[in-house]
Amino acid sequence: MPENDDKKSSALRQVSLLGTIPILMAVGPLVGYFIGSLIDDWLGTRPWFIAIFLILGFVAAGKEIYNIVRKVNKDL
Fold it and tell me: What secondary structure does DSSP assign to 20-71, as a single string?
């Protein structure tokens, strides 16, 4: 029976890790947008920092998603 519990907890961990991917896809670029917007308003350089930080948000989210997928595949 303990082996069945290990499989169940492993599957639950994988589902929870994969469930964070949509959140990361939304939050990373949104945070980048808001930081870029604040800097652009402060410096009066609109839309340069919005574009830079939006791209950085996508890159950061993509890197974290890649790490999560690697971790899930390693657990299989």
Answer: HHHHHHHHHHHHHHHHHHHHHHHHT-TTHHHHHHHHHHHHHHHHHHHHHHHH
Crossing angle, helix 48-75 and helix 2-43, to 10 degrees? Answer: 170
**Could you give the C-alpha distances from 73 to 1, 8, 19, 27, 40, in angstroms and in order?**
24, 16, 15, 24, 40
pLDDT in tens, 37-53: 999 999 999 999 999 99
Could you tell me the residue range of the domain that residue 43 belongs to? 2-75
Q: How many domains does the chain have?
A: 1
pTM here? 0.86
